[in-house]
Design brief:
The protein contains four helices and twelve strands, in the order αβαβββββαβββαβββ. The protein has about 260 residues and is of the alpha+beta class. The chain has one domain. A twelve-stranded mixed β-sheet has the order 7-8-9-10-11-1-2-3-4-5-6-12. A hairpin with a 2-residue loop joins strand 7 and strand 8. The longest helix is centred in the first third of the chain and has 14 residues.
Length: about 260
Amino acid sequence: MVRKLMVSAVLLLAAIVPLNAEVKYTMHMEARMAANAGNDPMAQMAGPMMMQMFPAGGIDQVVLAGEHGVRSEQKQAFANMKAGMVTLIKTDGSMFMLDPSSKTYWKQPLMTSEAAGVMAGMKPDIKITKRGEFETINGMKAEHMVLSMTMALPGVDPSQLPPGMSPDITMGYEVWMTDAIKMPAGATNLASTAMKQFGMGNVKELNDGRMLLKGVLTTFGVEIVMTATGFSNEAAAADLFEIPKDYKEVPSPIR
């Protein structure tokens, strides 16, 4: 389940990129052990699993966003997704995964049905614990905010848990947001729909028209570090956001 939630989280990141006309950039993600990693049983089980999902050096997604939607090409293998996979997100919110090596594709929800059921039962409590501090990242002024999230383990009787195991999942999320690159209304609406599936619909500060330059998600003793770099403007042909006619539809392997 941790694996499925992490795959869904990667797809969520692809869904909240800006839809400015023909913007291209690279989103890098990597996992590392947190300095204050805990020793509770859940962290000992889930932490190594999360670390193993990422290749050495992390993964890179080259993102091209324009008036026709968002296209993201994955450069390294991640979980059960091959290197070279392409994610297409239409302006109506529909998402498709393309495998150029086999010329196949499938329609993919932002969150799997199983993961959505789990999230619905967790009812996360999200608090913003710090904001109003600014830093310069890649020449852009960015606000540094810190959030905390606590979610109850779904379907678990706390009295039946092993000694030392918490009945809650806790996450810390640090973000650096800039208004030097702004998201238009269409992208904001798309991001809002995606964030609601993760129980984050009320966190307006993460979806207020600004661009995420850096994020650090900490859970199970592991930090997932995300950085966006290499912003440029370039023309984007409309057919880059369409499924090629010679691609065959197949069932989604991500369930």
